[in-house]
Protein 1
Amino acid sequence: MTGPVSERPGGGDPQGPEAGTPDAGNSPAGNSEAGGPASGQRRSGLRNPEKAVRGLGAGTLALEALVLLLAIQPIRVVGGHLSGAAIGAIVALAVACVVLAGLMGRAWAWHAGTVLQGLLLLSGLLHWSLFVLGVIFALVWAYAVHVRRVILG
């Protein structure tokens, strides 16, 4: 067959419908001299990057609280004896996760979340499976902090 291989739905413009707009970054005023976005532009393309990052942090902490609470019984059955102190630590950490998830709008909450991951790692002294959960959630939290830095700059 002859003819165009594919035609885009915006009139066939290969650069897309926003290629000539100033928001696309093609004008000299759209970018700073360093090659990044100008001071008034959004860096990530999100409508509200702060809200998106807060949601990421809150979702991560809420998931951590849920996993901690649901892990009590399997740890008791499979992992051996789980002391009352370990169960208390799990419940306290889960409550702290929920509280911090609600406070993610505050700047210090990210630092408190990092401290919380360290406390979960330290609770591994009470039971080895808590250390494993601490390592997993510390890695997840580190990724969330990385995404926060990338989006907010």
Protein 2
Amino acid sequence: MDSLFSEGLTLMAFGMGFVFVFLTLLVFATGIMSRLATRFLPEPVAKAPQPRPQPAAAGGAASNNDEIVAAITAAVHKYRSK
């Protein structure tokens, strides 16, 4: 029974050691790939947002809104009359 227990502990130590070494190598490999990616593939620089054009005159916008309201009212009236 002592031999079986000893073999189990040995197998556990080798298994845990292998996993530890593999994960350590994986951390280093991921770090190296991250450095290479940032060096050779930099993030694109974001462009500044374009300013929106201002409306030309308040009088023209009011008449435009009146036309839109009239068109919507006519469409609703026609839809409800069916």
Protein 3
Amino acid sequence: MNPKQADKLATGVLYTVAGIIIVILASLLGFILFQGLPHVSWHFLTSPASTFEAGGGIGIQLFNSFYLLLLAMVISVPIAIGAGIYLAEYAKKNWITDLIRTSIEILSSLPSVVVGLFGFLVFVLQFKMGFSILSGALALTVFNLPLLTRNVEDSLRQIHFTQREAGLALGLSRWETVVHVVIPEALPGIITGMILGAGRVFGEAAALIYTAGQSAPALDFTNWNPLNIASPLNIFRPAETLAVHIWKINSEGIQPDAAAVSAGASAVLILAVLLFNLVARYAGNRLYKKMTAS
């Protein structure tokens, strides 16, 4: 076999493998949406869930998912940006920084159930936060922070060193160069990573079962006082999310229409994660074009 034939054969094998993977993923996605979308309606998206009666929705669970996601990103993003800037711009090459990077790699590969058990022991029991939104948000922070930190560091390292030299040559300090030159150039990659991380957190279930809880108490959407237990903004109340709700109704099966609710909720979850990915690609491309044009 000559080199051209070997190259064509290898290329054909790679295309075949990629095609098989795409077909499998598209089939799974199509099956979930085909089974779930007929059950999705405005009533389904806004009404509270029912335990022993048919016709319940996912309104509270959907709100809890977005609220937990927002709180977790508010906590983790500033820490990740600070850690990424330090590792990329200020950390010296020694065994301490190597240990930090190794620890980040290890933490980023932890199973979510391990993070959930850690959150249960530390936040729920040790700090006596109970099953609450705050416990869940802190667990999601532990779960997502290593990935966000690595994303920020990689995005900053991809900026060519001449950009830094140009800032220093103009009389900027090192910090001013990072803030005004390096970070704006790395912003498309950073924002893309943040949105993808948000999508990963949105579909998380195992870490929240042990921290945010498996119940969704009735909420009073006319009372936005965060100190009121019935307020949607109360961070010390239990909060069953959409992913946990799907797991719960499939494991208990006490709802008459559990299969329909599970299919509809799964379709909504898939669409939300797809939306996060599409927004990440769109935002990254727009920012990149804007940065290159300017």
